[in-house]
Amino acid sequence: MNYQDNYKALKITQKNRILTVTLDRPEAKNAVNPAVHEELSRIFSDIDRDTDTDVVILTGANNAFCAGGDLEWLMDINGDPVATANSILNDRKIQNSLLDLEKPIIAKVTGPAVGVGCTLALFCDFIYATPDAKFADPHVSVGLVAGDGGAVIWPQLIGYARAKRYLLTGDFIDGATAAEYGLITEAVPKEELDATVDAMAKRMADGAPYAIRWTKSSINAGLKLLANAIIDRSGAYENLTMLTEDHKTALLAFKNREKPVFKGR
User: Fold this and answer.
1) What is the homologous superfamily of the domain 1-191+208-265 according to CATH?
2) Pairing between strand 173-174 and 134-136?
């Protein structure tokens, strides 16, 4: 498949049936803007149809995975019900296409994996991160519901008590603790991260492809049922909170490096 003609915001390379997708906005710690968001909504479906790819690596440029939603984009669409609804629709496409992707996908994480960036990592089959990487779903910190997948995946990985601890506060968790809790596969020293990810990618590529794909599909079947029960509700609630004054207050406070004062409206 020729990705160069259809993807400009994502950097995509291929070697030995292993496809690497890189979030490539290093000047913004790979924060998701409209162009990246739109391409993410279709890349995993395209990969699923790609007969030249058996394994996927998802990573970010310049020692950052993804800092979440781009602040200027969030401010632009705040209060616009059509724009926010389109954003939520793309979130649902991303979540569903990741769960539908039968080929194994490996997240390689350094630096921040925040918000939608955290969801992208946690929806992968293997998540390798440096011990000092930072995972967080801080939607509540900016007056939003965790609607882009956090409410789905965190409880399944670390249980409801710990998931609520992080989703209701927006607190960060480092890579070492994330591995200890089972949020990610393994915390790996930075100098060993590339080799560890490459070794697992090669192992998957050298395995029996249909046995691996259909085992993954079977595992994800239950998760998809759960996700379908949650995604519509959390997405709808997130869309509502994107229209609130509290969300706008939080965005302005974040931009000005201040602490937001929420008023419940």
Assistant:
1) 2-enoyl-CoA Hydratase; Chain A, domain 1 (3.90.226.10)
2) antiparallel
